Request: fold
Amino acid sequence: MPVLREAARAHRFLAELKGRAGTIPNQGILIDTLSLQEAKASSEIENIVTTQDELFQTSLYPDRPASPAAKEVALYADALKCGFDNLHRTQGLLTNNSITQMFRILKRTTEGFRATPGTALKNETSGELVYIPPQSADDIIRHMTALERFINEPDGQELDPLIRMAVIHHQFESIHPFSDGNGRIGRIINVLYLARQRLLDTPILYLSRYVTAHKADYYRLLQSVRDTGQWEPWLLYMLRAVGSTAVGTLELIEGIRVLMTDYKSCLRTQHPRLYSQDLLNNLFRHPYTRIEFVQNELSVTRQTAARYLDQLAAGGLLVKQQAGRNNYYVNGPLVQLLTKGEGARPI
Reply:
């Protein structure tokens, strides 16, 4: 009964989130801005830490040198987008080929599933051996094949899809199929599974901030299922993560919607010659934007794009910054909203 009650609660908030997300005119705004926040939070669980400014700078100038942490976060966002694109290309199937492709993007490698034994999971603090996952390549392939089948079984199975998501995540982390990055890939699989089940239209529910806030419980409950076979505490943890994160994401999306409405009004009244929906979308798809982004997305000349951005900066809608010989422009209120929007609230 506790699991059923928590599942019903989580479904209610998810349904509200799915509906509210549809009020944002361009879903790319949510995918791009929220995926970067998820990339940052998910990487922090693995002690890969970067700042908001460095995160946005890296997305602004991907070819420039950046810290290893910022590069890893950017690669996580790329892997997530690849997985979502593959979901469309495969008519909703979440395959091992797609999972492996995400891993290769994340780790910039040509490797696949682990092929040599020796992997063991240890306590970060004490160094104590905690868990030994499957060792042989054949066992890993066999388990991942079974998991792929479980993920893609037709709808209408007995298990609630949120329960299935929790089971999938536990099984993936226990197989531990890759040499590195299993936690991050596992968290991407969570949101892709929700999209596959049509509980969300776009991958905008990210559990990593909840996991970061309750990290000790996450690892304790993962291991507890392996040690005792008691699933209920783990299921409750994951269901609460979904519900809590949905509440926080609802608040964040509503904040973005209100802010977009304010910017739209300001553009129409103060800069009527500049206003277009495409320009508004650009300012919210890229919290840090640059001339080239506007030039390409609005199909205008570089001179026109520069004039647009300079006028908006002069009017206080953007803050003009300089990086070397180039300028970039910051949507300050949006950055503050994303930084404040932790994506998980107690419920």
